[in-house]
Predict the structure of Pyruvate decarboxylase.
Amino acid sequence: MSSKKITIGNYLLRRLRDLGIDIIFGVPGDYNLPFLDQIEDFGSIQWGNNCNELNASYAADGYARIRGIGALVTTFGVGELSAINGIAGSYAEMVPVVHIVGTPPTASQASGAILHHTLGNGDFRAFANMYKEVTIAQANLTKTNAAEEIDRVLTQCLLKGRPVYIGLAVDLSDFELNIDPSDIKPLNLSIPRNPKDDHEAAIEAIIDVAKKAQNIIVIVDACAIRHEMMKKVFTFLERTQLPVYVTPMAKGGIDEDHPQFRGVFAGNCSTEPVQKEVYNADLILSIGSMNSDFNTGGFTYRLSQKKTIEFHTYHTKVFYAIYDKIDMRQLLPDLTEQWPAELIRQNNVKPFEIPSPVLNEKSDEIIHEYFWNKLPDFIPENSIVVAETGTSEFGVFNMRAPKGVTFLTQILWGSIGYSVGAALGASLAGKNDNRRVFVLVGDGSFQLVCQEVSSMLRFKTNLVVLLLNNDGYTIEKLIHGPDRAYNNIQMWRYHKSFEYFGNGLKQNREQAITGFADQVKTREEFEKAMQQVVKETDKIHFLEVIMPPMDAPKSLVLTIEGTREYKRRERETQE
C-alpha cells in the first residue's frame, strides 16, 4: 500500500485545478482560513480575495461562463448568505459554480454549541438548507466521505450546469485521506445515454415533420451555450444549411458573419426583417430555449407550438409530443448524421446586416441609438462584452457583434450590479487568451458593487469600464414612477473611481496601469476616448458616459410595452 496521502483540502483543490480552475474567488473568514492557507500554498490556483461575498459570487459566475466552471469560498452564515443572491443567479441562468463554505469545527457542530455566525439555536444546517433551493447538489464533508462527496457534487455541477454547495469544516481541511495523489483518476463526465427506443422515435418524428416543411429555421438559445452544445450546433448547421437565429441570451453564440446567421430574435424587439423571416417559417427548430420575459421581448414571441420542435437537456418536444429524458446533447449529433440529403438546401439569402439608425447629425448628445451603433467600431475581435441588467443588456440586443465576441448578461435573474463582478471574473478567465473585457454598467447598478474596481486594479487587468450615467434608475423609471424620488440616486464622481480605490498609492505594489479615466459628454469626446482605449491595450480605462436621463434603447421600451400587454391579457383572463 502506498504511504502517500492527500489532505481533504488539497484533494478538493486538485479536482478544481484538473477542471481548469486557476483562481478561486471569495472573502476570508475564520472558518475558512486553514483552507485559504492551502489555496495560497497550492501553487497553480490563485486566491481571488474579493471586496465582498456578493461580488465574489458574481466573479465566479463570470469566470465560469468563459472557462466552463468557477469557484468561490465564503465563511459560514454571514459570508455564505451574502453570496446567495449571486449563486441564485447562477442557478437560474444555469452556470456551474462551486461554492465552498468554511463551517465551524465538527465537535462544536456535534454538541450544538452557540457560536458566532450562527442563529443561536444550535442548528448548523440552517444555511445549507437555505441553499438547497439554489444548488443542484450539496455535500457536507466528513473524514469518511470527503473524496466521494467531492467527486459526486463536482460531477453534478458540470453535467447539470448549475451551482453546488460544499461544506468544509475548519478542522477537516488538513485531515489526510488514504489516497495516493498519483492514483486520482479523472471524473466521469459522460452523459447518461438516452433511452434507445424513444431516442430513435424522436429522430424519426423530427425527420418526418421536416420532410413536409418548406421553410425550416433554427433558433439557438441560452441552454445550447450553457451545456456546451455549440460545436454540435455548428456541425448541424453545416450539414443542413438551415438559416439560424439567436435569442438575446445566446447573442454571440453564432458569429454574425456566419453565412447562415440571420439575426437576433426577441419577438417585437427584433428588427422587422428578422420578425418577418421567423414568422414566415413553417418549422422552427428551437435549440436550448429559455422563454423568459426579457429574452422574448416581453412575451411577444408569438411562435406557434404547432410548428416548433424544442431540444432540451431533459426532454425533446415535437409540437405537443414530449419525449422524456431525450437529451439534446446526444440527439442533435445523431439527427445531424441522419438528416436526409434531399432536405439540404442551398442557402441563397443575402448576408445579414443590422440597419444603421438615422441619427440627428446636428446633435452631439450621446444617445443610445448612436452609442450602440458606434461602440462596435472600437471592440476588437474575440473580446468579451459584459452588459448590465437595465439599459445596457437591452442595448446589446441588436448591436452589431464583432467576430468571436462573447456576450455575458443576466437577462433571466436580472440582479443589478452583476456586471462589475462578472467582468472581473471574465477578465481573469480570458487573460491567457488575451481576451479583453468591455463592461457596460449603469450608474445605479454601479453604486451597489463599485468596490470590485479595487480588485480590477489589484489584479492588473486591462478592462474597459463604460459607465452609462443617465442620472438614476432609468429602467425603473420607464417601468413605473418616472418622477418618484425612489428612482433617484446620489450623483457620484464615477470617473474618479480609480483614484478612490487606491490607484497610485505606494502601499499598493500590485496595480493596473491606468489609461483614460474621465467623463465623455459628446460624441466627439467619446470617439476620441475610445481611440485611446484601442491603442492602449495594456491599460485599464474608465469612461463615464453622460447620457440623457430618460433616453433608452428601443428594445427596452418595446420589451416594457410587451410585458404590460402580457399582464393586461393575464388580468382579463382572470376576470
User: Anything to note?
Assistant: The chain has three domains: 6-183, 196-343, 368-559. The mean pLDDT is 94.
